Amino acid sequence: MLYKNKHIKSIYSFAFTFLITGMVLFFIGGTLIIYGLIRTNQVMDQKMAYDQVLELEGNHAVHVAYFEFTEVPVKVGQDGDEGFYLLTDGKKYVIAGMKKSQYEKVLGEFMKTASYTLYGSTNYIPDKDIRKEIAENLSIELGQDINVDNMDQVVGDVQIRYTEMTYRAILKENFSPNMIVGGILAVVGAIMFMGNFSEIINFRKVQSISGISAKDIDKSACKEGAIWYPNIRVYVTPDMLVGLISDVGHMHFGQVALRYNEIVRIYGYNEKSKDSNEIVKNINYKIIVEAIDGNRYELCDEGNMSYKKEYVIGEMNSMFAECQKKSPSIIYGPENTSCRTYTFPLLVYANLDGSGYKEYRGRMAYDIIPQEYMDDYIEDFETSNLAYYYSTCQAIVNMTMEFTEEGEIEIQVYYFEDMEEIMDEDMEGFLLGQLMDGWGEGKSFGDFIISVEKNTI
Fold this sequence. Notes:
By secondary structure, the chain is an alpha+beta fold. It has helices spanning 6-45, 50-55, 100-113, 128-142, 151-155, 167-203, 214-221, 305-326, 362-368, 371-383, 427-436; strands spanning 48-49, 64-69, 74-79, 82-88, 93-99, 116-123, 159-162, 206-207, 227-229, 234-236, 240-247, 252-259, 263-272, 283-291, 296-302, 331-332, 337-350, 358-361, 396-404, 408-416, 444-445, 448-452.
């Protein structure tokens, strides 16, 4: 089916684009590999004398050539572990590239009969410094004025690089770039194709109690009044609550659609992936819907939390509020939760008379802060997803804040009852650190800076 809703279409189109890209990369990679294999066969079947190579039109490289020499090879250059040797049959001259072990083998065979036919792949010597070194040594050996410009007229424009006459050796010598680049492109293309093919197929699958289809979701999402939450990929439509899951990294795709009278509870939490560690945080934000059929439906499984963590809670809260408007019986939070309460003395720095900032503590601090600043502070705290930074974040469901008239900030931490054992005992220290620096944001409001102190009681 063709989606009409722009947000659903964008997710689907993204996967489709990567699917096509994967196909193209796989085709290019496969073509390079096949070309290399075919050309290797052709090259092996077309062995020719070095003179015949020079008579060919066009590129003289990537051919299998042979040359029979009758005098001891003379070294005229070096490039890394490869030496360049002057070969001659008494009439013509050729440059051959050989490693030390290859040269010793060739020389041993030559000494037996005073002649040897060298086989190898032809290629150019592009390095100017190497060519200059060879030209200077050729001038000395041959007694001629030879330079990089006229050297090709004496020894030909390509060297014979010693190569074993096996399929594997010819392939490696002449077409290894095809195999390497082609292999990389083919593997990347295959991964992209398979991953996105799976996403396209599975993304259309819908989890629903009442038989809602992908077509029904698309139609409902296009209705007036439908609200899209991009960071959690959830739609609140006039008819249903829809979650769009597209997590290529964990191969998790699909759509969840529930009518509002089918929903019992909604809650969210952070979940560490198995590969998450202290250096690299790999944390997903999950939204769970408990329905009237007794099942739990995963409405959101959103990764990339390093840059979304500050938005998911706000969207989650807004989404829940919209759902409650449509069905006031929907409950926020899981059924079995426990709560811990932490209090911290309030500390405020305020510039009330323009003479500079002064410290105010406790009840006095509470009295001078405008209510709107308290409300903003609470909202920032409750939507900042501080649990993301907590060592056992998967245990925490929610955190709330309140300013008390006694001049304290009270934090309530709600967590899964069955995860009591993994709740870190240093939650108080964690909260204190976050509150003292404004959880990395620096909580200043006009002439007021709101902070807390360590509880000494």
